[in-house]
Amino acid sequence: MRKILVAIDGLNYKPSVTEQAISLALHSNGHLVGLFLHDRTYHSYKIYDINTGMLMSNESIAKGEARDKQLRAEAIEAFVAACNLHKITYTVREDKDIALPQLIHESLYTDLLVINSGEQFNYYPTSRPSRFLKELLESVHCPVLLAPDEAQPITRTVLLYDGSPSSVTAIKRFCDQAPRFGSHQTDVAVLTIKGTGESLHLKDNKLIKEYLKRHFPKATYTVVAGEANRKIPAMLKKEPSSTVVVLGAYQRGMVSRWLRPSMADILLSTVKLPLFIAHLR
CATH 3.40.47.10: does it fit domain 3-147? Predict the structure, then answer.
């Protein structure tokens, strides 16, 4: 039995995260841990009104706190009901510490973390990916499945491969997890983008095919020329919504990330597919 950690914002509950995690657990006899993040600095209401320059009254704050408590209770109830419906073993835990460091710490003791791809854990809307997700992906200790707002069982996999240790590590981590994505799954594609003018030869062709043959003997390989940051999103937008994309992330230094976004950042903002992300530590 594997442990799957499901990170949930009780003030903005996304059923798709629970549904995606349950689908994985059903294929692997997995145990779900619903971690309901309850950061004391995060509320569903504004404490300070920018328009008026006024703080909310104590009475308004009390009403807001009561509403937040109710929202969190309803989220837990929905998670429990879904697990019971599918006869999934589960644990519910409310974390009332600072959300991000606690989630990173818990990831050290789990096999897979499932979280909504639009999670921001902030009252004010932000662009995708949120700062919360960026910092999580930078420091997390286990593979992460970023679930879109509409989840469904996975029937196809696209492995992004460029020959780098990061991409190979992500593929290996996915192979470890593959049974929980459905033992029936045979539709696996390896996608490589080479720069204009580069040889279309697959890097370490013999080695990568030798490795994947043991896990996905029917995998197909596609190598095309183009700019990866544009070509990959364009190709993935044509994929069915039941496709999971596997990639490495955040291997460059901080300054480099400021100058050039990670492929994970680009895909989070452009495609609506589940993303399986693991990085070389």
Answer: no
pTM reported for the whole predicted model: 0.89
Torsion angle of the four alpha carbons 158, 163, 169, 170, in this order, in degrees rounded to the nearest 10: -20
Cα Dmax for the chain: 68
List strands edge to edge, sheet with 3-9. 90-95, 31-37, 3-9, 112-116, 144-147, 275-277, 243-247, 156-160, 188-194, 220-225
Q: Do domains 3-147 and 156-277 have the same CATH topology?
A: yes
Q: Residue for token digits 């030798």?
A: 210
Q: Which two tokens stand for residue 43?
A: 């509320």
Q: What are the extents of the domains in the chain?
A: 3-147, 156-277
Q: Say which CATH topology domain 156-277 has.
A: Rossmann fold (3.40.50)
Query: How far apart, in whole angstroms, are the C-alpha atoms of residue 81 and residue 70?
Result: 16
For residues 231 and 242, the answer to whether their CB atoms sit within 8 Å is no
Encode the chain (281 residues) as per-residue pLDDT tens digits: 689 999 999 888 999 999 999 999 988 888 999 999 877 767 666 665 545 555 666 677 678 778 888 999 999 999 999 999 999 999 999 877 778 888 999 999 999 999 999 888 876 667 788 888 988 998 899 999 999 998 788 889 999 999 988 899 999 999 988 777 764 456 999 999 998 888 889 999 999 999 999 999 999 999 999 999 999 999 999 999 999 999 987 544 443 333 346 888 899 999 999 999 997 66
